Input
Amino acid sequence: MDFTLLFHAFGTVMLNPINFFFVFIGITAGIIVGALPGLTATMGCALLIPFTFGMPPIQGLLMLLGIFCGGIYGGSISGILIRTPGTPSAAATLLDGYPLCQKGMAGKAIGISTMASFVGGTTGALVMTFLAPQIAKIGLKFGPPEFFALAIFGLGMIITISGRSLLKGIIAAVFGLMITVIGFDPLSGVPRFTFGSQDLLGGVTFIPALIGLFGYAQVFRNIEKITILPPVKSKVENILPKLAEIRSTLVTMIKSGLMGTFIGSIPGTGCDVAAFVAYGEAKRSSKHPERFGTGVLEGVAAPEAGNNGATGGAMIPMLTLGVPGDAVTAVLLGALTIHGLQPGPMLFKDHLDVIYPIFAGMILAQAILLIVGLAGARVFARLINIDRRILTPVIFFLCVVGSYSMRFSFFDVGLSLIIGVIAYFMEYYEYPVSPILLALILGPMAEQNLRRSLIISHGDATMFFTRPISAAFIILALAVIISSYYRIKKASAREAQAAASGDENK
Amino acid sequence: MKKADIGVGVALIISSAWIFWYAGSYHEATIYYYGPNFFPQILALVMGLCAVFLIVNALRGKSLSRADRIDLKGFGRMLIAIGICIGYLFLMQVIGFAMGTSVFLFVLMMFIGQKGLLKRIVSSVMVSILVWAIFRFFLVIPLPTGMFEFTF
Output
């Protein structure tokens, strides 16, 4: 960690009002996207990446970081007010947030959620700032077998946490990996599965695929259900929490922030897992666990600090090893690549001019989140009331623009629409789409490093198990998948038992 | 979801077999032993294996229960919306981005039941001009101009 560079980066970011402006825009856009049910932080980043194309990399990235942090926080607003989490990571927040709202304390819940997001997010950003360069140093020692094992570990983790079926998660991941083999083979230069199309020679472009998976699919669902979804009404008062309330929840916030950071830093997990674990731990260690779920402030503070802590945590493997912590960081990784920066240990050697401003920007984003969150909570709460019949076509249009503007190609728009339709059906048939996104990022890394390793070892696959780091990642991935298989099996047995007893009662 | 799982499983087996066979043709293209065919063929094998498990699970009655069902009327609405979008992609190239977008948004809002005429006009025109201005002046990214090259 070079403190001179860090202070210099703070100076660069803080002293330039344009940087403030972009973080502010990012945070505000993120909160709006996060607060609107059905629009996730992933989708927000995906839709707004095209708006960063013309910007210098740092400003573009600062805006995207703002959307990431704002989006994760924004999800709690709708969770608290209308019991519908704006993003999956806010699902734990509504457990106590909504009961607080029913007691007429919605403003207070949002205030504590904002404070907790700030504390958790700052904790995560600080840990990221100090830990990432150390991990990057370890990453420099990685060879092809380690990177292959890491990619498998990342995919293994996301498969186990997304969806109700492990098998369908694996199918989704393999489907994503199959998409990545389209186009020129990077090692031999042979075009694969292009069927003579010039547009496919470079492979399936990441942004259109991303917008298809997370943008179009959601728009299609919204249009399908437009007559079923009830209109919502929400309003809040008294946002600023009292000093005593902040003091009583501060320990929970810091502890949850640290836990969130740790969980977020495991490739493949993410903010939603961090929020639930933080909530569970806060409940377990509370003097009055029975009050959780009835509307206690710790029940809002813990998941919000946890999921915002995970934002910093998830950035660690993405920046240092090129392996995204979750779906949003996968999008950010794509954004970095578009701006000509390849995340991984070499980034810390070759592009310190970008890395340190990212650290500074992440910390700045938390401060702006606190100010914007507290000052604008009432407005954001009203945004939830926006007519879906106006909002959905606008998002549809943003998807079209986003998929077009990457290469100014109508082919990409068509491709994106097709991927959107596939993702729409996948969701209905319980195939999770997050593994596809991670596979799109990790696929080329897995393939190239697998083949390189086998070429180096003359076809001896045991090298993945004789090198300690690679063996550790593969064993961990297998252990997680096997344990998750038994967990899912147990859960479905319980479900079947409950259904059977329900039938008997009838 | 038994029928769906079996259907998907069969489709996956057929496509995996085809991918395995098609990727095999890349083998002769290079001198590499672990050439361009290697990874797609491994993926095809894994996918085929997963598909077999999916079918076996379904036949043993272990398919997941459905959490949500597609609303057929809504599905039709979605298909028409995609049709409107495809029409918009062609229209944009004829009358330009901003005007084409205004028409698209107006029509789509009307189609999904937004009743207020003024709301529809104002929101569709404002959003199209705002995004057009951001791309045109701020990001300097070219957008289709259509026959009205001088403006939108």
Notes: Chain A has one domain: 3-496. Chain A touches chain B through 60 residues (CB under 8 Å). The first strand of chain A starts at residue 183 and ends at 184.
